[in-house]
Design brief:
Strand content: 15-25%
Mean pLDDT: 95
CATH class: Alpha Beta
Structural class: alpha/beta
Number of strands: 10
Number of helices: 7
Order of helices and strands: EHEHEEHEHEHEEHEHE
Radius of gyration: 17 Å
Shape: globular
CATH architecture: 3-Layer(aba) Sandwich
Oligomer: single chain
Length: 237
């Protein structure tokens, strides 16, 4: 099975690479081009990325590219409710692998806020992102359960987060099989991005994507909500 054999939605291109290294390099070049264009047009650029192990090679490739980094702001599609000093923090991952060398000139807007409850932390995080412009470049991944960002199947807030008219830009999310509570951007915040990239790796995730491309409830495989233009799908074995 390959991306070429999948029936993609009209207007959603798919790109296939022979190795993870080649995909990381291609993604970095495309993201850099999108950020340069945003800076040229609007004087600044907003890059929103995801956590996990898969994006590390992409982060390190991007960090080496020449960009007007001082005019780039980096934020997150989702975050575990842990401080940046925690080993599982997405912010810590991005700082460690992307905001290095010249890329350290970019500004980082994390989503974590200390609070008495997850809902209060989500309210504070939403306040912190409320003034942001639409995302210029969004890079998402996907889990084996079909989640993207922290939009997990069976999370109590999932139906609200997947509404096209959700009034919230960010919500508290519960990851049923994960050790930490989450904060996640909602569907309107994600789909408002100018350049939307989904990067997945391996046959298991390709099989999940194949299922998600078939009709079915969004709550079953939340990635379904993103499988529409202007999304681009990038995959490698």
């Amino acid at each position: 099975m390959s991306l070429a054999s999948l029936q993609m939605p009209l207007g959603v291109p798919g790109y296939q690479y022979e190795t993870p290294a080649l995909m990381a390099e291609a993604l970095a070049e495309q993201v850099a081009e999108g950020l340069r264009g945003a800076v040229q047009e609007r004087g600044r650029a907003l890059l929103v990325v995801s956590g996990g192990r898969s994006p590390v090679a992409f982060y390190e490739c991007l960090a080496r590219l020449e960009l007007p980094w001082s005019k780039v702001q980096v934020s997150l599609a989702d975050e575990r409710w842990v401080p940046p000093s925690h080993a599982d923090s997405n912010e810590a991952l991005v700082r460690r692998h992307l905001l290095q060398g010249p890329a350290a000139q970019a500004t980082m807007l994390g989503l974590y806020h200390p609070a008495q409850s997850l809902d209060e932390a989500a309210r504070l995080a939403e306040q912190s992102v409320a003034g942001l412009p639409p995302i210029d470049v969004l890079v998402l991944g996907m889990g084996d359960d079909g989640h993207t960002a922290s939009l997990f199947p069976a999370s109590p807030n999932l139906a609200q987060a997947l509404r096209d008219d959700c009034p919230r830009r960010l919500l508290a999310m519960h990851a049923p099989a994960a050790p930490h509570e989450r904060l996640s951007l909602t569907l309107p915040a994600l789909t408002g991005a100018h350049l939307q990239l989904l990067a997945i790796q391996g046959s298991t995730k390709l099989a999940v994507l194949t299922r998600a491309l078939q009709p079915g409830p969004l709550e079953e495989l939340p990635i379904r909500a993103l499988l529409r233009p202007p999304l681009q799908i990038h995959w490698c074995p």
